[in-house]
Give the backbone structure.
Amino acid sequence: MPRDRILVRNLRLWAHVGVLERERQLGQWFELDLTLAWDLEPAGRSDALAGSLDYSQAITALQRQARTIRCLTIEHYAERIFEQIEALYGPVPMQVELRKCAAPVPGFGGTVAVVRHRHWP
């Protein structure tokens, strides 16, 4: 696996995901950290985007996906994110940390997250 990484941090996404019906109807904020393992040496040497992964494509695709997704769990939402990234770049080693910014748990003011890996050793 390449040692180099492309990191997209704190991508805010409004999505209709949650076990409670009101979460799916009204939507809520999520934050995403995406790590893509890729050999960045070719782009570093040539200064050509063709030697890297265009992260702007991932950001745009994930923003578009967030507007249409409807599901119960953040685990499933993370799975759909993997599918979206694979559709763009193929089977790239990746890590997703997906955070629900305001979990509907009385008296809880923190965040809840899942961390998932795909094609990661």
Observations:
- The first helix runs from residue 21 to 26.
- DSSP finds four helices and five strands in the chain.
- The first strand starts at residue 5 and ends at 17.
